[in-house]
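Tutorial, part two.
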Amino acid sequence: MFLPKPSLTKSGRYYAPVEIPATRTKARLQAAQRVSTSPPRAVPGVASATTTQRITLVIPALNEAANLPHVFARIPSCVDEIVLVDGRSIDGTVDVARALRADVRIVVQSGRGKGNALACGFAAATGDIIVMLDADGSTDPAEIPHFVAALHEGFAFAKGSRFIGHGSSTDLTRVRRTGNRVLALGVNMLFKTKYTDLCYGYNAFWRDCLPHMNVDCDGFEVETLINVRIARAGLTVTEIPSTEHQRIHGESKLNTMRDGSRILRTILTERMRRRTTPAHPDEWRPVFRELPPTVTG
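Running the prediction step on this input gives:
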């Protein structure tokens, strides 16, 4: 069971938007802190809540110019800010992003790999809620409202799962599916979690989670690192059914054996690491460079 982090769950930030009574009993609170396996339900007040609490969408991208038109076309209107983190693309990714959305913020990552790209995007984000999305079209931006609704229900972290409810994947190979389940089982045993999907990068969370996530890895192990550190911090987690599609254009940058080994090493390292509280809420922030906005008119 995930236990609440007092600084997050007692502030009223998570509960006020859906008007959950302050007198909720301890038993009811604990019952709400589960890993949900049902589709998200409609939440009264969530539409109005998203107008006052900004949502930032962070999209790491490396040579994804051909895929961005599809991705950007499906971004819902509730998203207030788009931060595209470019890994020094050579196919015009930045130009395409700006042609699609004049208000997109372009961040150039300081290092290499998806983990570093996400960390730079998180550091640049200004929203109260942060959503992680892939740039290859495999994750559907139209699902974002479901993740946001879960956060307004009282959860600190909403993670996508391809293996619950109406979730599915047309991209997973048999080897990757089996590896994911084995690794998830290991994490559940070591960290007392109930994750059904470990290696999936569609997540949404309140920005207060960032110091606990402390993303300091480079590669595709970043999803596992985040999931484990969120659990170790005792933050409330729910899973949202999500459909993963095949990338639209180009080839995947994932290497099953190499990245699987990095994920396993991350799990073992986190199991041995002492739990520490960040000395400063901003100490996790990497250095990044943001490109100046385009001049129009």
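Confidence is low (pLDDT under 50) at residues 1-51. In part three we will examine how such features are distributed along the chain.
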